[in-house]
Amino acid sequence: MLSKIKHKRHIAKTLTWRVVGTLDTIVLSWIISGDPTIGMQIGLTESITKMVLYYLHERVWVKIYIANSRKRHLIKTVTWRVIGTLDTVLLSWFFTGNPYLGLQIGAAEVVTKMLLYYLHERLWYKINFGLDKRIRARKWKRT
């Protein structure tokens, strides 16, 4: 039962983060490339690649215990950003045909996405969706 609960929570976190992340990618790619079509291509392709990568990242992190929630969220933010930035750079390079634009878009996202991801993690930490009562009780004792 517990694993089903965790899967449901991770899927919900994946979907909410992907909406935030995709909008950020579309806007940044559009601004940097000057082409709204490029922004949409990168953002929509990323919506698929990043959902898979994010879900796998969540499954790894469910096995890692770090008592301090802020430290945990900070480390998760950094590890996810490395994975996410590499994905963005490669997709941006592919769609623009320009590795320099790929690096520019990836570099811009490092700043915006880390802030957005940290806020997303903090919000989900306060939401009990998908957690059983034992986990909720432990979580609130650690905060």
UniProtKB/TrEMBL annotation:
Residues 11-61, 74-124 form the DUF2061 domain. It comes from the Bacteria. This is DUF2061 domain-containing protein.
